[in-house]
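Intended use. Records like the one below are meant for learning the mapping from a protein sequence to its folded structure. Do not use them to infer anything beyond what is encoded.
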Amino acid sequence: MEWILIINGITPYIYLGIVAIVAETGSESSDDVLGILAVIFAVQLLTTIILSIVSRDKAKLAKVTMINKFIQIPYYIIFFIIAVLGVLIFMGLMGVGLLFIPVFIAIDIGVFLTTVIPEEICTIKLIMSKKIPVWKFILYLIGNCIYCVDIVLAVLVHKDFKKAAAPAVEAPADPL
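Structure written out for the chain above:
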């Protein structure tokens, strides 16, 4: 069931492509298309939250989230370039570029939430099962909300689940 969430890594590219096509064509139905995209994204986010909560295998969820974060790296690079260029170019039109900043922030937060929410739920599972100390729990919760740091922490959360699943090695019996 957790593998369904791999779609979270791919959909930002689809959304970006559709928005680019709508912006290029400038059709009158662009508001309708963007409205439909917003509804689809809301359903995707709600599905992500529900599947993350009901997932029985949080280790698999942590792995899928880590993979999604790696898949989304090129998207964020493309997105930030487009956002910065869009704002700068449209600033020349009487400051219209400032109007795009909230739109870009909303898109960015939405895509970011599709990987942050499952990662936070995995972190909560680790602390509830006493697999990590409190300081690490706080570090993971805060760090998962910081760009670039979240990728490193996704790998660490996945490693913590693998370490927790590994059988404990018993110390050899003392021959004396």
